[in-house]
Write the structure tokens for this entry.
Amino acid sequence: MVNQPSMDDQFLIKVHQVIEDNIDNENFGVEDLADSVGLSRSMLHRKLVKLTGKCASEHITQSRLLNAKSILEDNSATVSETAYKVGFKSPSYFIKVFKKYFNVSPGDVKKGMITDRTVSLSDLDPKAGKLDYSKKLFIKQEILIIFFIILLVGVGTYMWISLSEPTQKSIAVLPFKNLSEDETNQYFADAMMAELLNNLSHMKGLKVISRTSSEKYRDSNKSLPEIAEDLHVSYIIEGSVQKYENSANISIQLIDARKDQTLWSENFNRELKDIFKLQSEIAKQVASELETVLSPGEIEQINKTHTTNLEAYNLYLKGRFFWDRRTENDAKISLQYFKQSLEMDSNYSLAYAGLADAYHILASWGWYPKIEGYSKSKAYALKALSINNDLAEAHATLGCLNMDYNWNWDVAEKELMLAIELNPNYATAHHWYAGYLRDVDKQDKARVHINRAIELNPHAIHMHSSSVWTYMGQQKYNEALKAAEKVNELENDRIPLDWIKIPMYMQQGNDLKIIEVLQQNKDIQKALEKDSATLTDMYNKTGIEGVIRYRIKHFMKEKYRSDFNCMVARYFLCINDKDAALDYLEKAFELYEPPLPSIKYDLHFKPLRNEPRFLELLNRMNMGGY
């Protein structure tokens, strides 16, 4: 009696027959396969992985490659012809995938070279007798038992595994390569990469690294596992774009970065008018491959198109890139890019949100008239929301404005929490919400959100700087120092660390450490040489108060700081000059300095808590007393 194929065997036979029937169809994908076998994408994925350890896209790709190998070995077609015969839209992409799979190029196979993979097409087909899935399952069960025993024996060793491994599904999208002959088309590749990243960022089940941090790896020589370790992610997306007159070819790879293993790859050829729709499709495909279930709200966000003007979109991206660098010149450059973006599309909500953020940063850092800058920021944020009320960027800006300018704490919290709900991967919203939580003395919760912001944008200097103050609020001074050193590392030693170290060492009564810190400040050293003085002599004559007053004198030259008056007040409190400290706090109030509200719970300002002028300042900021 002939053994009948099991239900699982029959299912696999059907899957591979459908793939074979569509092997030359370049548009055939996982969705089509799922429809043909009568399953949903997720059910197809789970069933194939359970039976074979491979997802649907891997089966499709493997079938195409093995068919290609047979054609090339028969020498019956050119490499390009072979690529099209097996459903690849781009010969160059076909060559890349083929070489990665077989460790030999298609051209070399045509010349008679043997690949290092012995699998043949029949290995995919249970009817051929080479693959008995019931036996395979039995063998897998034995292997699992052995593995379980080994795991129990080695459980002690397991406890040494780093606890820093990411538990959430985490992903980074690396800058896409421009394969077009015209190098100026790089803007198009950048737009494709950023739009995909934006779509992924709306998925609550994923941690998505910001574009600013991913940009660090453009043309990097680091391996994918190294990049994954740097960014603390499990998955990486690589892509390339080849733009023609009215169409583009986009290749995408989803990679398990820690294993350097491709989980899914696809090649798309679309007209430019359909590009943004394609990006939504790709994002949903990535979610499916990672088995991330999308809510109706998330799908709605992903399907939204903020603009159909690629040039407007690219100008917006450039604006965000410069805005995130937080220097006066960069902020002003970002402002111009956002304005140019709106010239291309006057109804582009994200560009209005960008303008709101540019004016907000320029005003809060003292690079633009405060009241005018904040007023423009609010107007542009509201304009953005009038076009798209679900824009996380604009809600986050309104939240920060209510915190820094209006001191409306209830509205600030409401807007910042809404921004995070709308886009849980928007690092800036977590950053600003952490600032709000510090100001209202929820220090541990603030730590959670600033940590999240740094996870999402690990190379952003301003977020690490915020982390310093959060540690200060938690009274974790050693951690604050380490975070300050990280800021300095990212700034290439541009910022002296005494702004954080002196108040800290004053609290500890460590005068010698303060002198040591100031001796490392190049500007102070130049001033001392000019004055023919030394800090040691100064300390011996006037004590630590004289040393601090000398520092204050030279700090007055650093008025570029957005927190200048708050910092001067902090220095004066180091030497218990309460009146001078209050004078500078009142100046900070007049200038709406962003750090001012934090004085209520900052321990450095504790000596002022019974001072009427101090309590009046808190009342004027709607913060009440103690």
Residues 95 and 106 are 6 Å apart (CA to CA). The longest helix spans residues 133-153. Confidence is low (pLDDT under 50) at residues 118-167. The domain at 7-128 is CATH 1.10.10.60 (Arc Repressor Mutant, subunit A).
